[in-house]
Write a structure and sequence with these properties.
With about 230 residues, the protein is α/β, with parallel strands linked by helices. It has 7 helices and 8 strands.
């Protein structure tokens, strides 16, 4: 009887471990992030390019993957990072903390899998705010930063800019966005363009939610292209 209880306990521990959401803690910021890894094409080869994806505020990694990457044909290791309590912060020092932590994680997975390119960072809405902020502080950790429907404001700009002309940013934003204003995206790009010539904002017709409805194929095709381009 006692032996059976021990075996049952071991099985429960194993099941808990297998179901546990993996996490990463940055030793500098002492901040933990949780993440999930998905493979849209089913391949899990070590040398797959890496996409680090940040969902919008109020969303989940499961929902973001389902509506963005599932069945997309994006041949990559897609790593989806959970926002703290589902919401990315819009406060300067918190943006600094999370952008730094995500950058350390990007370096960790880049060393772990050794793909030919540094990770591509994609962020939507609230995740796009983190992506824009990262372009001004951590751009050298990524092959490309792709904010979608994100923004920056003067009060959340980083105190110390750490970027250069090797930084590549390609953003998308709906011109009639009434959730995250198009002007906020324009402001973010204008700030980044002070430090690099490789930053552009692609404007599309439509509001906040039209991006992944009417322009999803265009964005996914761009991601596929960027993943195989030096």
């Amino acid at each position: 009887m006692e032996k059976n209880i021990i075996i049952l306990f071991i099985l429960i521990v194993i099941a808990w471990w297998l179901l546990k959401t993996p996490s990463f803690t940055d030793s500098v910021t002492n901040t933990e992030i949780k993440y999930q890894i998905r493979y849209p094409t089913g391949s899990s080869d070590d040398d797959l390019p890496i996409v680090i994806a940040l969902h919008g505020n109020g969303d989940t990694v499961e929902n973001f993957y389902k509506h963005t990457f599932e069945g997309s044909g994006v041949h990559a290791r897609v790593i989806l990072i959970e926002a703290p309590d589902k919401y990315w912060p819009y406060i300067q020092h918190e943006l600094q903390r999370y952008s730094s932590t995500i950058a350390s994680f990007a370096e960790y997975v880049y060393q772990e899998y050794s793909p030919s390119h540094k990770p591509l960072l994609l962020g939507y809405s609230g995740g796009g705010v983190v992506a824009y902020y990262s372009a001004l502080t951590e751009c050298n950790r990524y092959s490309l930063i792709m904010p979608i429907s994100g923004m920056l404001r003067k009060d959340i700009l980083p105190d110390n800019i750490n970027t250069d002309y090797s930084c590549k940013v390609k953003a998308y934003h709906g011109k009639t966005d009434n959730v995250v204003s198009f002007s906020g995206g324009e402001f973010a790009i204008s700030e980044i363009q002070k430090h690099t010539n490789s930053a552009e904002l692609v404007s599309v017709d439509g509001d906040h939610h039209v991006i992944f409805r009417d322009y999803k194929k265009m964005i996914l095709d761009d991601i596929k292209y960027q993943l195989v381009t030096d």
